[in-house]
Write a structure and sequence with these properties.
Strand content: 15-25%
Largest sheet: 10 strands, mixed
CATH superfamily of the largest domain: P-loop containing nucleotide triphosphate hydrolases
Helix content: 25-40%
Mean pLDDT: 91
Low-confidence stretches: none
Bound molecules: adenosine-5'-triphosphate, magnesium ion
Distance between the termini: 83 Å
Structural class: alpha+beta
Protein backbone atom coordinates (compact mmCIF):
# COMPACT_ATOMS: atom_id res chain seq x y z
CA UNK A 1 0.00 0.00 0.00
CA UNK A 2 1.23 3.49 -0.79
CA UNK A 3 1.12 6.50 1.50
CA UNK A 4 2.41 10.02 1.19
CA UNK A 5 4.52 12.62 2.91
CA UNK A 6 2.36 15.13 4.82
CA UNK A 7 4.92 17.17 6.77
CA UNK A 8 8.69 17.63 6.73
CA UNK A 9 10.76 19.02 9.56
CA UNK A 10 14.47 18.45 9.03
CA UNK A 11 15.12 14.70 8.97
CA UNK A 12 11.78 14.05 10.68
CA UNK A 13 8.92 13.42 8.30
CA UNK A 14 5.22 12.74 8.86
CA UNK A 15 3.62 10.25 6.53
CA UNK A 16 0.06 9.16 6.01
CA UNK A 17 0.20 5.38 5.70
CA UNK A 18 -1.99 2.93 7.64
CA UNK A 19 -0.94 -0.31 9.39
CA UNK A 20 2.59 0.71 10.25
CA UNK A 21 4.26 -0.37 13.46
CA UNK A 22 6.89 1.35 15.58
CA UNK A 23 10.33 0.46 14.25
CA UNK A 24 9.08 -0.38 10.73
CA UNK A 25 11.30 0.55 7.85
CA UNK A 26 9.75 2.77 5.18
CA UNK A 27 10.93 4.16 1.88
CA UNK A 28 10.24 7.88 1.67
CA UNK A 29 9.77 9.94 -1.47
CA UNK A 30 10.52 9.24 -5.09
CA UNK A 31 14.18 8.62 -4.27
CA UNK A 32 13.15 5.93 -1.73
CA UNK A 33 15.07 7.26 1.25
CA UNK A 34 15.30 4.81 4.12
CA UNK A 35 13.44 5.82 7.27
CA UNK A 36 12.24 4.25 10.50
CA UNK A 37 8.86 4.78 12.18
CA UNK A 38 9.44 6.39 15.57
CA UNK A 39 5.93 7.58 16.51
CA UNK A 40 2.36 6.69 15.55
CA UNK A 41 -0.80 8.74 15.88
CA UNK A 42 -3.70 7.08 14.06
CA UNK A 43 -2.80 6.81 10.38
CA UNK A 44 -0.06 9.40 10.72
CA UNK A 45 3.41 8.05 11.39
CA UNK A 46 6.47 10.11 12.30
CA UNK A 47 9.47 8.78 10.44
CA UNK A 48 13.13 9.39 11.11
CA UNK A 49 14.85 9.58 7.72
CA UNK A 50 18.38 8.15 7.75
CA UNK A 51 19.56 9.87 4.58
CA UNK A 52 19.97 13.39 3.29
CA UNK A 53 16.39 14.44 2.43
CA UNK A 54 17.02 17.74 0.69
CA UNK A 55 14.67 17.97 -2.29
CA UNK A 56 11.95 15.87 -0.66
CA UNK A 57 8.49 17.40 -1.08
CA UNK A 58 5.03 17.13 0.48
CA UNK A 59 2.83 14.59 -1.28
CA UNK A 60 5.69 12.34 -2.39
CA UNK A 61 4.96 8.60 -2.09
CA UNK A 62 5.90 6.44 0.89
CA UNK A 63 6.00 2.65 0.92
CA UNK A 64 6.58 0.22 3.75
CA UNK A 65 9.21 -2.50 3.85
CA UNK A 66 6.70 -4.45 5.99
CA UNK A 67 9.18 -5.05 8.74
CA UNK A 68 11.85 -3.39 10.83
CA UNK A 69 15.29 -2.18 9.81
CA UNK A 70 17.40 -5.30 9.23
CA UNK A 71 20.92 -6.35 8.34
CA UNK A 72 21.74 -9.10 5.90
CA UNK A 73 24.01 -11.76 7.41
CA UNK A 74 26.10 -14.24 5.47
CA UNK A 75 29.61 -15.00 4.25
CA UNK A 76 31.52 -12.04 2.85
CA UNK A 77 30.90 -9.59 5.69
CA UNK A 78 34.52 -9.87 6.84
CA UNK A 79 36.68 -7.28 5.13
CA UNK A 80 33.55 -5.23 4.42
CA UNK A 81 33.16 -1.50 4.90
CA UNK A 82 29.56 -0.43 5.48
CA UNK A 83 27.62 2.66 6.46
CA UNK A 84 25.17 2.77 9.38
CA UNK A 85 22.48 1.10 7.23
CA UNK A 86 24.86 -1.70 6.15
CA UNK A 87 25.24 -0.32 2.64
CA UNK A 88 28.57 -1.49 1.21
CA UNK A 89 30.59 1.69 0.70
CA UNK A 90 33.00 0.34 -1.93
CA UNK A 91 30.07 -0.93 -4.00
CA UNK A 92 28.36 2.47 -3.71
CA UNK A 93 31.58 4.16 -4.79
CA UNK A 94 31.81 1.87 -7.81
CA UNK A 95 28.20 2.60 -8.72
CA UNK A 96 28.00 6.32 -8.07
CA UNK A 97 31.48 7.72 -7.46
CA UNK A 98 32.94 9.38 -4.38
CA UNK A 99 29.81 11.35 -3.50
CA UNK A 100 27.09 8.94 -2.57
CA UNK A 101 23.59 10.01 -3.47
CA UNK A 102 20.60 9.18 -1.28
CA UNK A 103 18.11 6.39 -1.83
CA UNK A 104 20.48 3.65 -2.91
CA UNK A 105 20.14 0.21 -1.41
CA UNK A 106 22.63 -2.23 -2.90
CA UNK A 107 22.79 -5.75 -1.39
CA UNK A 108 25.59 -5.73 1.22
CA UNK A 109 26.91 -9.19 0.32
CA UNK A 110 28.54 -10.22 -2.93
CA UNK A 111 26.06 -12.57 -4.64
CA UNK A 112 28.32 -13.26 -7.62
CA UNK A 113 30.98 -14.85 -5.43
CA UNK A 114 31.14 -18.67 -5.20
CA UNK A 115 31.84 -20.30 -1.86
CA UNK A 116 32.98 -23.90 -1.28
CA UNK A 117 30.07 -25.21 0.74
CA UNK A 118 30.52 -28.39 2.75
CA UNK A 119 28.17 -30.06 5.18
CA UNK A 120 27.84 -33.12 7.34
CA UNK A 121 24.04 -32.84 7.24
CA UNK A 122 22.32 -35.46 5.12
CA UNK A 123 18.81 -35.76 3.77
CA UNK A 124 16.43 -36.56 6.64
CA UNK A 125 18.52 -34.66 9.21
CA UNK A 126 16.47 -32.50 11.55
CA UNK A 127 17.66 -28.99 12.23
CA UNK A 128 16.75 -26.61 15.02
CA UNK A 129 16.87 -22.81 14.71
CA UNK A 130 20.44 -21.56 15.08
CA UNK A 131 22.09 -24.91 14.35
CA UNK A 132 24.69 -25.00 11.58
CA UNK A 133 23.71 -26.80 8.39
CA UNK A 134 27.14 -26.48 6.77
CA UNK A 135 30.11 -24.19 6.41
CA UNK A 136 32.19 -22.20 3.97
CA UNK A 137 35.74 -20.97 4.42
CA UNK A 138 35.85 -17.22 4.88
CA UNK A 139 39.42 -15.96 5.28
CA UNK A 140 40.85 -17.61 8.38
CA UNK A 141 37.57 -18.85 9.84
CA UNK A 142 35.07 -21.59 9.19
CA UNK A 143 31.95 -19.58 8.55
CA UNK A 144 29.04 -21.68 9.83
CA UNK A 145 25.75 -21.26 8.01
CA UNK A 146 23.02 -21.25 10.66
CA UNK A 147 19.49 -22.46 10.17
CA UNK A 148 16.79 -19.82 10.59
CA UNK A 149 14.06 -22.30 11.55
CA UNK A 150 13.30 -25.86 12.68
CA UNK A 151 12.76 -28.53 10.05
CA UNK A 152 13.84 -31.73 8.33
CA UNK A 153 16.12 -31.57 5.32
CA UNK A 154 14.79 -32.97 2.07
CA UNK A 155 17.69 -31.99 -0.15
CA UNK A 156 21.30 -30.89 0.42
CA UNK A 157 23.56 -29.31 -2.21
CA UNK A 158 27.31 -29.29 -1.69
CA UNK A 159 30.08 -27.79 -3.79
CA UNK A 160 30.01 -24.26 -5.11
CA UNK A 161 27.47 -22.03 -3.41
CA UNK A 162 26.33 -18.61 -4.48
CA UNK A 163 24.41 -16.77 -1.82
CA UNK A 164 21.14 -16.48 -3.70
CA UNK A 165 21.02 -20.18 -4.54
CA UNK A 166 19.65 -22.61 -1.93
CA UNK A 167 22.21 -24.65 -0.03
CA UNK A 168 19.48 -27.05 1.08
CA UNK A 169 15.70 -27.50 1.12
CA UNK A 170 13.36 -28.43 3.95
CA UNK A 171 10.68 -31.09 3.53
CA UNK A 172 8.03 -28.41 3.08
CA UNK A 173 9.93 -27.09 0.09
CA UNK A 174 11.33 -23.99 1.83
CA UNK A 175 14.94 -23.26 0.80
CA UNK A 176 17.88 -22.64 3.13
CA UNK A 177 20.02 -19.88 1.69
CA UNK A 178 23.55 -18.91 2.60
CA UNK A 179 22.31 -15.62 4.09
CA UNK A 180 19.42 -14.31 6.16
CA UNK A 181 18.12 -11.02 7.57
CA UNK A 182 17.94 -9.99 11.21
CA UNK A 183 16.33 -6.86 12.77
CA UNK A 184 19.11 -4.64 14.07
CA UNK A 185 17.37 -3.64 17.28
CA UNK A 186 16.65 -7.19 18.41
CA UNK A 187 19.42 -9.10 20.16
CA UNK A 188 20.06 -12.46 18.51
CA UNK A 189 18.82 -15.29 20.73
CA UNK A 190 21.15 -17.50 22.75
CA UNK A 191 20.58 -20.45 25.07
CA UNK A 192 22.05 -18.66 28.06
CA UNK A 193 24.66 -16.18 29.14
CA UNK A 194 27.83 -17.43 30.82
CA UNK A 195 30.24 -15.53 33.05
CA UNK A 196 33.35 -14.20 31.26
CA UNK A 197 36.46 -16.13 32.34
CA UNK A 198 39.19 -15.83 29.68
CA UNK A 199 41.46 -12.78 29.38
CA UNK A 200 41.24 -10.72 26.23
CA UNK A 201 44.85 -9.80 25.51
CA UNK A 202 44.99 -6.30 24.04
CA UNK A 203 48.77 -6.13 23.66
CA UNK A 204 48.78 -2.90 25.70
CA UNK A 205 50.96 -3.50 28.77
CA UNK A 206 49.09 -1.02 30.92
CA UNK A 207 45.75 -2.69 30.21
CA UNK A 208 46.80 -6.33 30.25
CA UNK A 209 48.92 -5.96 33.37
CA UNK A 210 46.99 -3.45 35.51
CA UNK A 211 43.42 -3.42 34.16
CA UNK A 212 42.88 -6.64 32.23
CA UNK A 213 39.87 -7.20 30.03
CA UNK A 214 37.96 -10.48 29.65
CA UNK A 215 36.46 -11.98 26.53
CA UNK A 216 32.78 -11.08 26.79
CA UNK A 217 33.53 -8.06 28.99
CA UNK A 218 32.75 -4.38 28.43
CA UNK A 219 35.15 -1.54 29.05
CA UNK A 220 34.76 2.13 28.40
CA UNK A 221 37.48 4.57 27.42
CA UNK A 222 36.45 8.11 28.28
CA UNK A 223 38.91 10.84 27.40
CA UNK A 224 38.98 14.54 26.60
CA UNK A 225 39.99 16.02 23.28
CA UNK A 226 43.21 14.56 21.87
CA UNK A 227 43.88 12.14 24.73
CA UNK A 228 44.38 9.15 22.42
CA UNK A 229 40.97 7.43 22.21
CA UNK A 230 41.13 6.84 18.48
CA UNK A 231 44.74 5.63 18.51
CA UNK A 232 44.01 3.26 21.40
CA UNK A 233 40.88 1.82 19.78
CA UNK A 234 42.66 1.33 16.48
CA UNK A 235 45.72 -0.23 18.12
CA UNK A 236 43.52 -2.69 20.01
CA UNK A 237 41.66 -3.46 16.76
CA UNK A 238 44.99 -4.49 15.24
CA UNK A 239 46.36 -6.64 18.02
CA UNK A 240 43.57 -8.02 20.23
CA UNK A 241 43.55 -11.82 20.41
CA UNK A 242 40.07 -12.34 18.97
CA UNK A 243 38.72 -13.98 15.81
CA UNK A 244 36.68 -11.06 14.49
CA UNK A 245 36.81 -7.31 15.08
CA UNK A 246 33.87 -5.02 14.33
CA UNK A 247 34.99 -1.39 14.34
CA UNK A 248 32.43 1.42 14.31
CA UNK A 249 33.60 4.91 13.45
CA UNK A 250 30.64 6.78 14.87
CA UNK A 251 30.57 10.50 14.14
CA UNK A 252 34.36 10.87 14.16
CA UNK A 253 36.57 12.45 11.50
CA UNK A 254 36.32 11.04 7.97
CA UNK A 255 40.06 11.33 7.33
CA UNK A 256 40.83 9.17 10.39
CA UNK A 257 38.52 6.51 9.00
CA UNK A 258 40.22 6.72 5.60
CA UNK A 259 43.60 6.40 7.35
CA UNK A 260 42.39 3.31 9.21
CA UNK A 261 41.22 1.70 5.98
CA UNK A 262 44.52 2.37 4.22
CA UNK A 263 46.50 1.05 7.13
CA UNK A 264 44.40 -2.05 7.75
CA UNK A 265 44.43 -3.07 4.12
CA UNK A 266 48.23 -3.16 4.20
CA UNK A 267 48.81 -4.77 7.61
CA UNK A 268 49.03 -8.45 8.50
CA UNK A 269 47.34 -10.00 11.51
CA UNK A 270 50.34 -10.87 13.76
CA UNK A 271 48.77 -14.19 14.79
CA UNK A 272 47.55 -15.62 11.50
CA UNK A 273 49.90 -13.71 9.14
CA UNK A 274 46.89 -12.95 6.97
CA UNK A 275 45.66 -9.48 5.96
CA UNK A 276 44.18 -7.71 8.95
CA UNK A 277 41.07 -6.72 7.00
CA UNK A 278 40.20 -10.42 6.67
CA UNK A 279 39.11 -10.49 10.30
CA UNK A 280 37.68 -6.97 10.41
CA UNK A 281 34.31 -5.40 9.61
CA UNK A 282 34.17 -1.63 9.51
CA UNK A 283 31.02 0.42 9.96
CA UNK A 284 31.68 4.03 9.07
CA UNK A 285 29.30 6.79 9.94
CA UNK A 286 31.67 9.69 10.10
CA UNK A 287 30.84 13.25 11.05
CA UNK A 288 30.11 14.23 7.45
CA UNK A 289 27.47 11.49 7.01
CA UNK A 290 23.77 11.87 7.99
CA UNK A 291 23.27 12.05 11.74
CA UNK A 292 20.26 9.76 11.98
CA UNK A 293 22.10 6.79 10.43
CA UNK A 294 24.71 7.28 13.13
CA UNK A 295 22.09 6.32 15.69
CA UNK A 296 21.41 3.04 13.89
CA UNK A 297 25.08 2.33 13.09
CA UNK A 298 25.98 0.79 16.43
CA UNK A 299 22.97 -1.53 16.21
CA UNK A 300 23.82 -2.53 12.65
CA UNK A 301 27.37 -3.27 13.76
CA UNK A 302 26.51 -5.15 16.93
CA UNK A 303 24.10 -7.42 15.03
CA UNK A 304 26.90 -8.42 12.65
CA UNK A 305 29.12 -9.00 15.69
CA UNK A 306 26.48 -11.26 17.28
CA UNK A 307 26.19 -13.21 14.05
CA UNK A 308 29.87 -14.21 14.18
CA UNK A 309 29.61 -14.84 17.95
CA UNK A 310 26.82 -17.33 17.18
CA UNK A 311 29.35 -19.38 15.20
CA UNK A 312 31.27 -19.92 18.46
CA UNK A 313 33.85 -17.21 17.76
CA UNK A 314 35.38 -14.50 19.93
CA UNK A 315 34.31 -11.14 18.59
CA UNK A 316 35.46 -7.71 19.69
CA UNK A 317 33.27 -4.66 19.10
CA UNK A 318 35.00 -1.28 19.16
CA UNK A 319 33.19 2.05 18.89
CA UNK A 320 34.66 5.52 18.51
CA UNK A 321 32.76 7.28 19.99
CA UNK A 322 29.55 6.59 21.89
CA UNK A 323 29.24 10.29 22.72
CA UNK A 324 28.70 11.09 19.05
CA UNK A 325 26.07 8.36 18.96
CA UNK A 326 24.35 9.91 21.98
CA UNK A 327 24.47 13.32 20.32
CA UNK A 328 22.65 11.85 17.33
CA UNK A 329 20.04 10.43 19.70
CA UNK A 330 19.68 13.85 21.31
CA UNK A 331 19.23 15.52 17.96
CA UNK A 332 16.53 13.05 16.91
CA UNK A 333 14.76 13.37 20.25
CA UNK A 334 14.80 17.17 20.03
CA UNK A 335 13.28 17.04 16.55
CA UNK A 336 10.49 14.87 17.97
CA UNK A 337 9.96 17.49 20.69
CA UNK A 338 10.37 14.88 23.41
CA UNK A 339 10.86 15.94 27.02
CA UNK A 340 14.63 16.47 27.46
CA UNK A 341 16.49 14.95 30.40
CA UNK A 342 19.95 15.80 31.74
CA UNK A 343 22.08 17.93 29.36
CA UNK A 344 19.27 17.76 26.78
CA UNK A 345 19.67 13.99 26.22
CA UNK A 346 16.39 12.07 26.09
CA UNK A 347 15.29 10.49 29.34
CA UNK A 348 15.69 7.04 27.79
CA UNK A 349 19.44 7.56 27.07
CA UNK A 350 20.43 5.20 29.91
CA UNK A 351 18.02 2.41 28.98
CA UNK A 352 18.87 2.64 25.27
CA UNK A 353 22.59 2.48 26.09
CA UNK A 354 22.32 -0.37 28.54
CA UNK A 355 20.07 -2.29 26.14
CA UNK A 356 22.85 -2.03 23.60
CA UNK A 357 25.75 -2.79 25.96
CA UNK A 358 23.97 -5.82 27.39
CA UNK A 359 24.33 -7.46 23.99
CA UNK A 360 27.96 -8.13 25.01
CA UNK A 361 28.87 -11.26 26.95
CA UNK A 362 29.89 -14.88 26.77
CA UNK A 363 27.03 -17.03 25.58
CA UNK A 364 26.04 -20.61 24.99
CA UNK A 365 24.77 -20.37 21.43
CA UNK A 366 21.61 -22.05 20.15
CA UNK A 367 23.79 -24.84 18.78
CA UNK A 368 25.45 -25.42 22.17
CA UNK A 369 28.90 -23.92 21.50
CA UNK A 370 30.32 -20.97 23.35
CA UNK A 371 31.05 -17.61 21.76
CA UNK A 372 31.90 -14.18 23.12
CA UNK A 373 31.20 -10.59 22.23
CA UNK A 374 33.42 -8.05 24.00
CA UNK A 375 33.08 -4.28 23.78
CA UNK A 376 35.65 -1.52 24.19
CA UNK A 377 33.81 1.77 23.82
CA UNK A 378 35.34 5.22 23.53
CA UNK A 379 33.45 8.12 25.07
CA UNK A 380 34.36 11.78 24.49
CA UNK A 381 32.91 13.76 27.39
CA UNK A 382 32.80 17.49 26.57
CA UNK A 383 35.48 19.35 28.52
CA UNK A 384 36.73 15.98 29.89
CA UNK A 385 33.93 16.17 32.46
CA UNK A 386 33.40 12.56 33.45
CA UNK A 387 30.27 13.41 35.45
CA UNK A 388 28.29 14.02 32.26
CA UNK A 389 25.36 11.69 31.43
CA UNK A 390 26.87 9.54 28.65
CA UNK A 391 30.01 8.60 30.63
CA UNK A 392 27.91 7.94 33.72
CA UNK A 393 25.36 5.84 31.83
CA UNK A 394 28.18 3.73 30.34
CA UNK A 395 29.89 3.36 33.70
CA UNK A 396 26.79 1.81 35.19
CA UNK A 397 27.03 -1.16 32.84
CA UNK A 398 30.74 -1.45 32.02
CA UNK A 399 33.08 -3.81 33.87
CA UNK A 400 36.25 -1.81 33.28
CA UNK A 401 37.09 1.86 33.05
CA UNK A 402 40.16 3.01 31.13
CA UNK A 403 40.20 6.69 31.97
CA UNK A 404 42.34 8.79 29.66
CA UNK A 405 44.11 11.63 31.38
CA UNK A 406 44.58 15.02 29.72
CA UNK A 407 47.72 15.79 31.73
CA UNK A 408 49.38 12.51 30.78
CA UNK A 409 48.52 13.18 27.13
CA UNK A 410 50.05 16.66 27.39
CA UNK A 411 53.22 15.07 28.73
CA UNK A 412 52.98 12.67 25.75
CA UNK A 413 52.63 9.71 28.06
CA UNK A 414 50.66 7.36 25.75
CA UNK A 415 48.44 5.44 26.17
CA UNK A 416 47.34 8.16 28.61
CA UNK A 417 45.55 5.72 30.92
CA UNK A 418 45.27 7.14 34.42
CA UNK A 419 46.41 4.29 36.71
CA UNK A 420 44.84 5.78 39.83
CA UNK A 421 41.27 6.23 38.61
CA UNK A 422 40.99 3.40 36.10
CA UNK A 423 39.76 0.01 37.25
CA UNK A 424 38.84 -3.42 36.00
CA UNK A 425 36.30 -5.61 37.75
CA UNK A 426 37.70 -8.47 35.67
CA UNK A 427 41.11 -8.17 37.30
CA UNK A 428 40.89 -11.11 39.73
CA UNK A 429 39.61 -13.55 37.13
CA UNK A 430 42.14 -12.46 34.50
CA UNK A 431 44.98 -12.47 36.98
CA UNK A 432 44.23 -16.01 38.15
CA UNK A 433 44.48 -17.04 34.51
CA UNK A 434 47.69 -15.11 33.81
CA UNK A 435 49.27 -16.30 37.07
CA UNK A 436 48.57 -19.92 36.15
CA UNK A 437 50.13 -19.45 32.71
CA UNK A 438 52.90 -16.99 33.40
CA UNK A 439 53.77 -17.23 37.11
CA UNK A 440 54.01 -14.34 39.46
CA UNK A 441 51.55 -11.91 37.84
CA UNK A 442 49.52 -11.11 41.00
CA UNK A 443 52.50 -10.34 43.26
CA UNK A 444 54.13 -8.14 40.63
CA UNK A 445 50.90 -6.30 39.93
CA UNK A 446 50.37 -5.41 43.56
CA UNK A 447 54.05 -4.40 43.94
CA UNK A 448 53.81 -2.20 40.86
CA UNK A 449 50.61 -0.49 42.07
CA UNK A 450 52.22 0.07 45.46
CA UNK A 451 55.28 1.74 43.93
CA UNK A 452 53.15 4.00 41.72
CA UNK A 453 50.95 5.00 44.66
CA UNK A 454 53.90 5.77 46.92
CA UNK A 455 55.48 7.85 44.18
CA UNK A 456 52.36 10.00 44.12
CA UNK A 457 52.70 10.75 47.82
CA UNK A 458 56.47 11.25 47.65
CA UNK A 459 56.25 13.62 44.71
CA UNK A 460 54.70 16.30 46.91
CA UNK A 461 57.49 15.91 49.46
CA UNK A 462 60.12 16.01 46.70
CA UNK A 463 58.65 19.25 45.39
CA UNK A 464 59.30 20.85 48.79
CA UNK A 465 62.67 19.37 49.79
CA UNK A 466 64.05 18.47 46.35
CA UNK A 467 65.21 14.98 45.30
CA UNK A 468 68.45 15.38 47.26
CA UNK A 469 66.47 15.96 50.43
CA UNK A 470 64.83 12.51 50.19
CA UNK A 471 66.14 9.44 51.94
CA UNK A 472 67.90 6.90 49.75
CA UNK A 473 65.00 4.38 49.92
CA UNK A 474 62.57 7.06 48.73
CA UNK A 475 64.88 8.21 45.96
CA UNK A 476 65.10 4.62 44.79
CA UNK A 477 61.32 4.36 44.81
CA UNK A 478 61.00 7.54 42.73
CA UNK A 479 63.56 6.17 40.30
CA UNK A 480 61.79 2.82 39.90
CA UNK A 481 58.38 4.47 39.54
CA UNK A 482 59.72 6.68 36.76
CA UNK A 483 61.10 3.62 34.98
CA UNK A 484 57.76 1.83 35.32
CA UNK A 485 55.95 4.84 33.89
CA UNK A 486 58.29 5.61 31.03
CA UNK A 487 59.62 2.19 30.03
CA UNK A 488 56.69 -0.03 30.92
CA UNK A 489 53.37 1.85 30.93
CA UNK A 490 54.22 4.10 27.96
CA UNK A 491 53.79 2.31 24.69
CA UNK A 492 54.11 4.11 21.40
CA UNK A 493 51.54 2.83 18.93
CA UNK A 494 53.62 3.92 15.98
CA UNK A 495 56.69 1.77 16.73
CA UNK A 496 57.43 -1.95 17.04
CA UNK A 497 56.61 -1.60 20.72
CA UNK A 498 52.90 -1.13 19.83
CA UNK A 499 52.14 -4.72 20.84
CA UNK A 500 53.44 -6.74 23.80
CA UNK A 501 52.69 -10.39 24.50
CA UNK A 502 51.73 -11.28 28.09
CA UNK A 503 55.06 -13.12 28.36
CA UNK A 504 57.06 -10.03 27.33
CA UNK A 505 55.00 -7.84 29.63
CA UNK A 506 55.75 -10.09 32.57
CA UNK A 507 59.45 -10.34 31.74
CA UNK A 508 59.78 -6.59 31.50
CA UNK A 509 58.07 -5.86 34.82
CA UNK A 510 59.92 -8.74 36.51
CA UNK A 511 63.26 -7.15 35.53
CA UNK A 512 62.22 -3.71 36.75
CA UNK A 513 60.90 -4.94 40.10
CA UNK A 514 63.83 -7.36 40.63
CA UNK A 515 66.30 -4.50 40.14
CA UNK A 516 64.37 -2.42 42.65
CA UNK A 517 64.34 -5.22 45.26
CA UNK A 518 68.04 -5.92 44.75
CA UNK A 519 69.07 -2.31 45.34
CA UNK A 520 66.62 -2.00 48.21
CA UNK A 521 68.25 -5.00 49.93
CA UNK A 522 71.64 -3.29 49.46
CA UNK A 523 70.27 -0.13 51.11
CA UNK A 524 68.98 -2.14 54.07
CA UNK A 525 72.45 -3.60 54.49
CA UNK A 526 73.79 -0.07 54.88
CA UNK A 527 75.14 0.71 51.40
CA UNK A 528 74.58 4.09 49.74
CA UNK A 529 72.18 4.44 46.81
CA UNK A 530 74.68 6.18 44.51
CA UNK A 531 77.24 3.41 45.08
CA UNK A 532 74.68 0.69 44.44
CA UNK A 533 73.46 2.38 41.24
CA UNK A 534 77.05 2.73 40.06
CA UNK A 535 77.70 -0.98 40.76
CA UNK A 536 74.52 -1.88 38.90
CA UNK A 537 75.43 0.26 35.91
CA UNK A 538 78.92 -1.29 35.78
CA UNK A 539 77.51 -4.81 36.05
CA UNK A 540 75.04 -4.28 33.22
CA UNK A 541 77.34 -2.11 31.10
N1 LIG B 1 49.47 5.17 21.93
C1 LIG B 1 49.98 6.25 21.32
N2 LIG B 1 51.24 6.27 20.88
C2 LIG B 1 51.75 7.36 20.30
N3 LIG B 1 51.10 8.48 20.09
C3 LIG B 1 49.84 8.55 20.49
C4 LIG B 1 49.20 7.43 21.14
N4 LIG B 1 47.96 7.79 21.45
C5 LIG B 1 47.80 9.05 21.01
N5 LIG B 1 48.91 9.52 20.44
C6 LIG B 1 49.11 10.87 19.89
O1 LIG B 1 48.03 11.72 20.29
C7 LIG B 1 47.34 12.24 19.16
C8 LIG B 1 45.86 12.32 19.44
O2 LIG B 1 45.33 11.01 19.56
P1 LIG B 1 43.86 10.64 19.12
O3 LIG B 1 43.52 11.22 17.82
O4 LIG B 1 43.74 9.17 19.29
O5 LIG B 1 43.03 11.38 20.26
P2 LIG B 1 41.47 11.38 20.45
O6 LIG B 1 41.24 11.22 21.92
O7 LIG B 1 40.84 10.39 19.57
O8 LIG B 1 41.11 12.84 20.00
P3 LIG B 1 39.68 13.44 19.61
O9 LIG B 1 39.03 13.77 20.91
O10 LIG B 1 40.03 14.66 18.85
O11 LIG B 1 38.98 12.41 18.82
C9 LIG B 1 47.71 11.29 18.03
O12 LIG B 1 47.70 11.95 16.80
C10 LIG B 1 49.11 10.85 18.39
O13 LIG B 1 50.06 11.80 17.98
MG1 LIG C 1 39.38 10.55 18.13
Amino acid sequence: MNGMVTRISGATVCVDLPDLKIGDRVFVGVSRLTGEVVRLEGRIATVQVFEDNRGLGIGEPVTTAQGPLTVRLGPGLLGGVFDGLQRPLYKLQEDSGDFISSGQDPFPLDCSRSWDFSTECTVGATLKTGEPFGKVREGHIDHLLLSTRDGTLAQVNTGKLQLENPAAHFEDGQPLLGWHSWPVRKARPVRRKLPPVTPLVTGQRCLDFLFPMLKGGVSIVPGGFGTGKTVLEQTIAKFADVDVVVYVGCGERGNEMAGLLDEFSELQDPRSDRPLMERTIIVANTSNMPVAARESSIFTAVTMAEYYRDMGLNVLFLADSLSRWAEALREISAALEEMPGEDGYPTYLGSRLSGFIERAGVVETLSGTSGSLSMILAVSPPGADFAEPVTQACLRVAGALYMLDTQLAHRRHFPAINWTHSYSLYSDTAMAHFTEQHGEWARLQSRCRDILQREEALREVAEVVGMEGLQDADRLLMRTAEKIRLDFLCQNSFTDDAYATPKNTLEQITTLIAEHERINTGLKEGALLDDLLMEDANASG
